[in-house]
Design goal:
The structure holds two protein chains of two kinds. By secondary structure, chain A is mainly α. Chain A has twelve helices and two strands. Classes of the chains: A mainly alpha, B alpha+beta.
Chain lengths: 291, 372
């Protein structure tokens, strides 16, 4: 018995080996480097200057009335706002869709999942450019509206355009985790709720929603994190008007300010980890156990 | 007694396959009625029609005289105990039972007292704050029953509720369900493929096969006076042989003329003759009405199950006296042990023990548990 146990744990140990090496090389080491760069200056001496700079740098306000604002705090606020809105839109669009897919025939489920995945096979630069052509003042959307006699609208270069681009890019990451939870949900539970007196709205609120909460939490995590640090979409669809944290990191990196870029990344990471921890704590306590 | 539910000429198909074929059934207030049949006979569909989860293609479902074909489940005064319990995993025992009361906005203290009352009835006091996923199968079953009864429905539907429990627990729960039904006075509609369960619990048994009702009657009725070969075979063990009615109270089968207690058939009308295995007496060879050769003997605990070859037809006989394999024996059948049935579409399909095996029975049982 003992012998068998040692052997099996040895086998699992060996099998897990490559992954452990991988995790150390490509996850832990880079994270350590980010932290190291964030807290050092160009001569690799310890400093908190980069962190302090993030909170103190000022620049003229966008309105240009001579007032000064804290540059990176404004960018952070904008990033968070757009990311939260995009995540909310993804949730509103993705949740019903995930439910509909999970209740379809197995064949229809496969087809719909493939359709949702297909855009992910294309490079996101190309997707972003495609949205530019659609949303431009003389783009496909406006030509269509003009033809229908509805009048042109100005979208490109607005926050709406950036949000559209982000929702389009990240929607599958919201649908997939919610769908995978809902597909496993026992349909008898829904029947039981109806049997016990729930109208459709009650079934959703009292059974489907609480049971799909783990999928919702995962979906929010998977959309919020990349959208908060997104870049490029904002440059192309926002006409450079909506500089985001991701753009700031990219800009500093391109300008060879590695230490400050690392500092921004580090602060973002800590903030996100704290947010995730809070979210897990809250949902773990309140969605399961029912006490 | 008043009719509480009436099914009138109901037909239902799924994907072109007829599942219920013109079914009519009256269910009376305060009775324990069982829908009994093999998998695919339409018993679960019948239950779901009453629960509101299916609508009939044609025909009507009446509840206390009102047509309820299109009334959704949440507006019916009927609750269901589901086959795999369908307890809400995100709620604890108390909240599962309180579920229907909270939906109806019942005041807080009343919820408290009614849930406690129900948990006491199913012997789960003290389990209020346990997660339902941590309970045993039997305990989950009790929670499901409490949850279905707390809203005081007029009718409780039970869809093979005991199928997932082991034998000992199943026996206990059968008794308990019967007691709960008596204590609450609620009409129970119970679905099962287990004929023993049906016989021991029901006031009325509805035997179903291939989407049609074969017989409706008390346990004694369906056992002692089966309507056709299907019912005779499905309820208990039966030897079913071809016979000819010579006159009232006289029937010929297996090359011998027997006295019997049935009449009202045409002269020389071909019939199906049912003889229960426990009603055949073994006597020394030459002293019986029939004689045969023992081909197998199985010890069953209380009795021996003996397969006897009588003129090429294999009979099953249950006896407490041991006989050896290959023994030549005589057999005696009393007149009241012989039941005569009209010929039906099921004639000749059942009642010969040539290919009998206990294993086959168990295999088909296990299969039907999953498929309905």
């Amino acid at each position: 018995m003992t012998k068998k146990k040692t052997r099996s744990s040895l086998v699992t140990g060996l099998a897990g080996g490559p992954y452990e090496v991988w995790a150390v090389l490509f996850i832990l080491v880079p994270l350590a480097f980010v932290a190291y760069y964030a807290f050092t200056d160009n001569d690799f001496r310890f400093t908190t200057a980069n962190i302090v700079r993030f909170f103190t740098d000022t620049s003229p306000a966008a309105g240009g009335e001579g007032t000064m604002v804290r540059t990176y705090l404004v960018i952070s606020w904008r990033s968070i706002k757009l990311a939260v809105i995009s995540t909310a839109v993804c949730l509103l669009l993705g949740y019903p869709l995930a439910y509909i897919i999970s209740r379809s025939s197995p064949r229809a489920q496969k087809t719909m999942m493939t359709l949702i995945m297909i855009p992910m096979w294309m490079n996101f630069l190309i997707r972003t450019y495609a949205w530019m052509t659609i949303l431009q003042d003389t783009g496909i959307l406006n030509n269509l509206l003009a033809k229908l006699g509805l009048g042109r609208i100005h979208i490109i270069g607005t926050e709406t355009a950036v949000i559209i681009g982000m929702v389009y890019d990240y929607l599958p990451y919201m649908i997939l985790p919610i769908y995978s939870i809902m597909a496993k949900m026992d349909f008898k539970l829904i029947e039981a709720a109806r049997d016990l007196g729930c109208a459709p709205a009650g079934v959703l609120r009292r059974v489907i929603l609480p049971l799909s909460m783990p999928g919702v939490v995962n979906g929010i995590t998977m959309v919020l994190i990349p959208s908060i640090s997104t870049f490029y979409i904002s440059q192309k669809l926002g006409d450079g008007m909506f500089f985001l944290l991701g753009d700031a990191i990219e800009g500093q990196y391109v300008a060879n300010n590695l230490h400050f870029a690392a500092a921004i990344a580090f602060i973002l990471m800590v903030a996100l980890l704290a947010a995730m921890a809070a979210m897990r704590y809250f949902t773990d306590r309140h969605t399961y156990g029912g006490q | 007694m008043d009719k509480i539910i009436e099914l009138k000429n109901i037909t239902k198909s799924f994907d072109g396959e007829v599942v219920l074929d013109n079914i009519s059934l009256d269910i009376y207030d305060n009775e324990f009625i069982t829908l009994l049949g093999p998998s695919g006979c339409g018993k679960t569909t019948t239950l779901r029609l009453i629960g509101g989860f299916e609508t009939p293609d044609s025909g009507d479902v009446l509840f206390m005289g009102q047509r309820i074909n299109d009334v959704p489940p949440h507006k019916r005064n009927v609750n269901t105990v589901f086959q795999r319990y369908a307890l809400f995993p995100h709620l604890n025992v108390f909240e599962n039972v309180a579920f229907p009361l909270r939906e109806r906005k019942v005041p807080r203290d009343e919820i408290e007292t009614r849930v406690e009352e129900m948990l006491a009835m199913v012997a789960l006091k003290g389990f209020e704050h346990r997660a339902v996923t941590s309970l045993s199968g039997g305990q989950q079953q009790r929670v499901a029953i409490a949850r279905a009864l707390v809203g005081k429905p007029r009718v409780l539907l039970l869809d093979e509720p005991l199928a997932a429990l082991d034998l000992k627990l199943r026996k206990d729960m059968q008794q308990e369900l019967k007691n709960i039904q008596k204590a609450t006075g609620i009409t129970f509609v119970f679905v099962t493929h287990d004929q023993e369960e049906a016989l021991s619990m029901s006031d009325t048994i509805v035997v179903m096969s291939e989407g049609r009702i074969q017989q409706i009657g008390s346990s004694q009725d369906v056992y002692n006076e089966p309507q056709n070969a299907f019912v005779a075979d499905f309820i208990g063990e039966s030897n079913i042989v071809d016979g000819v009615m010579l006159a009232d109270r006289s029937v010929s089968f297996s090359g011998h003329v027997f006295d019997c207690v049935d009449g009202g058939f045409g002269k020389n009308e071909p019939v199906d003759v049912v003889v229960r295995p426990e009603d055949v007496d073994i006597v020394p060879e030459g002293q019986g009405q029939l004689s045969g050769v023992v081909t197998s003997v199985t010890f069953m605990g209380v009795h021996y199950e003996v397969i006897v070859d009588i003129g090429g037809f294999k009979w099953m006989i249950q006896t407490t006296d041991f006989v050896g394999v290959d023994a030549h024996i005589g057999l005696v059948i009393e007149p009241d042990a012989i039941h005569i049935m009209k010929k039906s579409e099921y004639s000749g399909l059942y009642g010969d023990y040539a290919s009998f095996s206990n294993e086959f029975d168990e295999l088909s049982d296990a299969e039907s548990e999953g498929s309905e």
